[in-house]
Amino acid sequence: MYFTHLACTACGKEHDGKVPQNVCTACGKPLFAHYDLAAAGRTMTKAALRGRTKSLWRYREVMPVKNDADIVSLGEGFTPLLAAPRLGAKHGMKKLFIKDEAQNPTGSFKARGMTAAVSMAKQFGLQKLAVPSAGNAAGALAAYAARAGMEAYIFMPKDTPRANVIECEQMGAHVTLINGLITDCGAEVAKRKAAEGWFDVSTLKEPYRAEGKKTLGYELAEQLDWQVPDVILYPTGGGTGLIGMWKAFDELEKLGWIGAKRPRMFTVQATGCQPIVRAFQSGEKFAAEHVGAHTKASGLRVPKAIGDFIMLDALRKSGGGAIAVADEDMISSTREVGAAEGVFVAPEGAACYAALKQLLAAGTVRPDDTTILFNTSTGLKYLECYG
Fold it and tell me: What is the DSSP letter of 345?
């Protein structure tokens, strides 16, 4: 469509988008997809969107896949933006919302990234895809690879929630459990991918998962009648969703659909794994690895993220911040959200509500702010946490 090239997020070096790419060949940092937005805006108009299918592929002109025949879809995206009046009433908030990503195929927001990544892999003629995962990305890759007739090679920590492991196995993926963290899984993929003929679709080591995730930003703006919220609280492991939304808001402004205002972006991490929180608080550009990472929220157990500098830049430019939440607060918040709003959130989603309470108490978030809590997955995948 209107995809033009890839460029490094750090040094700016351009890369050819017509062949498979991982990270920048000059500095090893993530690549972003770029588009001819002026041309895209001639057919992707607000009026045109009203008649399009309610999936993330409604934003077709700003997605990288060249031919529709290569799109591998399970109906992902355009998840509901649920008003949370009972939770809001506890805090005097009238504009509190939950963006419920549990309603995606495979039960998590990871479906967004994998529909884009696997579609591009199909376009390039790739047959074997590999990923290190804390759980939900693995399930999404297994599903979309199966849909595309590809092989999926998945590496997860041994203590990954059992539902994720079963999900991958039942969709025909090759599953290897590693005695370690997601970083150890990533090292195993890196060590074996050349000899095994795998293409690595790790978070931000593949350029197109971020394109699927950026549709979160497009959807939020559309669901709020082309306004951006005041505050977004987002649970952050690898951070592709937060990074993708930040990219989306820039594209939306260039399209002329929103103004210069940006939401105040808050990353939410676990106290047992908070590399971005520590780096933000200490004013660092990059985040040191969190040694001894531990948390029941497996999606937050990412001790080192390749896109750390992009996240930290977005947090600071937006006037937002970074906050850590204890596991016990996540677990108790799961019940509080569920009992009030009927949404069984994952621990990562519950962490956002726990963080909101801290931010309200500190006066950092105001009761009259339009505030979005992200629930990134269904709580049904984390039953071990609630025994």
Answer: B
